[in-house]
Amino acid sequence: MVVHSNSLQVGGLTPRSDYDITILSLLGSDTSQPVIKQFSTRPAGVCSLALLHVNSSCAMVRWDTVIGQFDFHREAVGNGLHSHMLVVSRETLVAMVTGLRHGCSYNMSVERIRRGEAGTAASLTVTTVPGRVRGVCVADVSSLSSRTAFTVMVTAASSSNLSPPVSRIINTNETAPKSPPTNLEGERVGSNGILLSWTMPSDSPIDGYVIRYKEMCPYPDTTFKEVPKHLDVPETLLNLFLPGSTYNIKVAAENSAGIGPYSKSLYIKTAEAPPGLVTNLTAFAQNHTFVVVTWFLPLRINGLITKFAVKAKHARTGQTVRMLELDAEEIMTVALPHCNDAAEILSRGTPSPSEVTASSPPVTLSAVPPAATWAVPISVGVDQLRPYTAYVFEVSAFTSDGEGQVASTMVRMPESAPEDPPHNLSVWNVTSKSVSVSWDPPTIVTGRFSYVTYLYGPTGFIYENSTGDLKFVYSGLTPYTHYRVAVRAKSAGLLGPEAFSAALTHAEAPSAVKALQAVAVDSVSVRVSWRSPAQPNGLITQYRLLVLSDNTLLQDITLIGTQNLNDTDLLGDGTLVPGIPGDSLRRKRSSDLSLTTSPPAFTVTLPYHTVVTGMTMTATSRTHSGSTPPDLNPNLDHNSYTVPTVTESPSLTSMGPVTGTDQTSDLPDSSPLTFDAVTSGTSALSLTSSTPATPLPWLTAHSQPSQLTSGQPRLSTRSAPAATGHLQTHPSTRAAASSTPGGVYVREEVMDMQSEELSYLVSGLSPFTEYTFTVTAATSIGEGPASHVSEKTREQIPSSVVGVSYQNVSSTSILVSWNPPLYPNGLITHYTIYGLNLHSNQALQRVTHNTSILLTGLEKYTGYKLRVAASTAVGESSLSDLDNIFAVTPEDGLTVVDTSPSTTTLSWSPPERANGVIQQYEVLYENQSYVAVFNSSVPRVTLTGLMPFSYYNVSVRSYTRLGHGNQTSDTLTMLSGEDVPGSPPYGLSYVSVSPNEVNVTWEPPLVPNGVITHYSLELRNSSHFLNLTTPISHAQITYLRKFAQYTLVVKGHTRMGPGNHSSDPLNITTLEDDPDTPPQFLLARKLSDYEVELSWEPPKETNSEILYYIVRVCWTRLGDGGVLIYISFSIIDAVTVLWQPPTQPNGILLHYTLYYSDNTTVTEQHIPVSELEPVSLGEDLSYCLSGLRGGQNYSLWLTSSTMQGDGGVRTDPLDLLTPDGATGPPAHPASPALPSPAGLTALGSDTHTPPSLLHPSIHFTSLSICLH
């Protein structure tokens, strides 16, 4: 067949048959390759299925035949619980199914199978026959006649079948009693027993009796309880009842056949007994003296409650303190519960006449009490109790039979305000900064006591503290101060009366003096002023003023008060100084006035202009003319100062009386130097004199002819003094001071110790000398820290210059040189040279800043008198004839015509007797490192290649055809011209004078190339620069910013201009100072009624690194009469700890552990290495430790750990005192970096050297505090 789609349905096929189908594709007359598909049809279905036989365990079925091919039959049998599958051959048409359960229904189906494919199945339902009945027994045959035989047959039936029958034979027995007992009566026996009796008819055999009862009042039972009794007579005693309760009782007879009918009910009430425990007993304290006791009725009232008893007892002693007896009817708000014999009857209504017997109770009694009666609380109040005392409350109920069981509960009374103050208040362990206070609790206990302590100082209330202990330690107190300590007990939030005591802290060494200043009065005296210490810590007994110069102690002055002169140990009010023995109040100063022995052998006084070239002396002592003060200790010890063996210093002249309140030093007059011996071979006073010369005819008495010569350098012609004479100095010049080994002037003077501002005039000082003045205050305990101030005395006119000499340069110029004064007494501003032409009496004057000058334009072969004076800002040194030198210009010869830094032109006159024609001139010029010869045919030459500003010796000799004739001119010492400096100044350094002032010094250029006329300074910081000039090699720079960084460079200048190079930069950091401005942006934020958060920014002008802040809180407490109160405390944010890693880690370091202790607890902080900033080799690791308390001593130590641990190796402890606002700046540790323990070696993988801990530095990040 032809199909035009892709599917085909073929019908009319034979079941259970095989078929082939071939499919071709057609296109016109062409066909494709055929595709052949084989398939089989399903087997034929089963048309009919019939049941042939069934019993209790098997069934037989039959089905029809069919034409076609198949493999076998498959039969399925099953119900909801079991299923079976059977295979039956294709020839078989009947099948027997066995193993079925009796009385069950099964579904059976049959189908034909061919090649795994099933045909249509036929099914039917089969029910098996039930099984035989088993276990037949007789249940109830009460309706049958007694003592008769009966046959019983039993068959099991299903919907379609019956089982075979089962039969039994039954014989009936005797019956139970048929009549109830009569005349049931009861009699009370005790509180829980009833004696029952009754009458029983004799129509049935009786084996015993059953008594049934239930409670009717006060708690009705829902069912009866049964009690069997085997009695010979109808009478028995039951004691199973509760006192004071009404019961319903019945009795029945019993035999082997059963129990007969029950008698009529007997209602009877048991006798009363003491009641049970009251329920839900509670006690509630309304206040500290009154308690409300509440309870409910006993579950078992056991009769009519007549009264209640309430007792209050002490919980510990059991003593009864209060007892109440309460009438039950009066205290109850509802009717009292009570049971009687007719309760049950009356609750059900009026009984019928047949139910009323002689034993029935009268109808006037009350009914069953309602259950709500037990839910009514009973309350009573108990007063006159003590606060904070534990009481046991006992409650019992009474009936007519007596007191019932006692219920109890305990309650602790609330606290109340203390009624008496703490006892035995005592002050002990008093130190200079702390006081310990202890006390006993108040005698009357009114609660759990805490305590509030109050501290009062000289100005009134300071602060209060709360504590739960019986002691308190006040720390941070001010030494030598009267305090009043009060303690009040607190309970229930209320305070009781106070106990108080007075305390006086011990004295200690005072703090440093304040506002120490030193102001130079003149060139030899300085006024030192100060204010008394901020914390005197006791009665100031003395001040000690030390005067030092270059760390050498010069004067030791002790200033004492008038009370020290009386050697008293009493205060102004006549009391002893606390903590100091009466015989040791005044501590002797360590001074030494025994400084000399015998008078000196001989004396020599040196003038200023004398050059001392050598001096050797043996240390001797100096003797004061007066007696040694008796109260000075000869054991003076100044360990912090260097006292030289021999000191050359100006004399300390005594000052006249000074008016006013200032104290003035009174030093002894100048004493000459003392020599015991002069070492041989060394001139003690070595002076150089000039060589005799040929006299000039015009010389007058101004000089001696034998003292002048020409052509050679000359020194001053002043003669040296004789060794035994005394050279007199000018009155205004400084005389040589006497000195001894350890030459310290020690004195003790009296001043007013009670004054707030004090001053002392220190005299006998040297002019223009830097002195350090150290002032300490002392109490009877000891000396406080020192305050230092430096001041330089004013300038004075200098002494005379020394070593004045001259040197001929040409016939019209000479070079004059000298040495500076031995005692400049200030900064030498310039030198003045005075000259006088001895021939024409014409004067000349020159000024220079150097120690030499070239005088030109002089007359040839002329004598001059010269003198040199040094000048300071005060004036010029004094001159006398002893300061004169005499010079003579040489005859005409070599002359310098012109000069420059590198060339010089010379000219000369030909020889007067040439002895021929001059062929040439030979010019020889040389200095210490250079020699050269230059030939010229004319008497003039220009020398080149010279070094700037250098001396050369020049000589000329002339040549004829026969030679030079061994004739050479006199040597001319010439100086080449100046140039700019060839090198910069060097060795720059500075000394801070104050936070905004520094003194800078430097060394002149090594190659000056001339006379340095002045120096130029360039000072820079990050935003400004400043140019300064100075003629000398030091400068005082003022008006700098405090705690600021500056850079300074210096250039030297000659007449030719500035040098081409500046000095190496000098970095200057000015000193720190107190902040000039307060903290900024102070904000307060209220957190609660008791907390305020303060925050602020650092000051705009800090002038230093901020170490800590002091917070002062002022307020006015209500009720204190408007008294202003304040507290001060310091705030510290963090401590930065620096350390070096261990030198032998013995592994990979994982973390450091920082331990810090406040002497009571040890806290550790783990610092992982990963959280630390990486540093280079040799740099310090750092960690910021926060959360420390101000004014607290801490010990810090550090360990480092690998994976194996820290090996038990740690650094040495480092002590740290955090800042305390009450005592000023924090104390920085003085100890250096802590090194690793010496000799430590690694013993295993878990040991290593500890890190090196450095002292901590304190810094701030941000600030925020809370006030409570």
From TrEMBL:
Residues 1226-1235 have a biased composition (Pro residues). Residues 180-273, 421-509, 512-601, 797-892, 893-979, 984-1073, 1120-1221 form the Fibronectin type-III domain. Gene3D superfamilies: Immunoglobulins (2.60.40.10). Residues 620-673, 702-719, 726-741 have a biased composition (Polar residues). CDD domains: FN3. GO terms for cellular component: receptor complex. Residues 620-675, 696-741, 1208-1248 are annotated as: Disordered. Transmembrane segments: none annotated. PANTHER family: CYTOKINE RECEPTOR, PHOSPHATIDYLINOSITOL PHOSPHATASE PTPRQ. This is Fibronectin type-III domain-containing protein. It comes from Coregonus suidteri. The lineage of its organism: Eukaryota, Metazoa, Chordata, Craniata, Vertebrata.
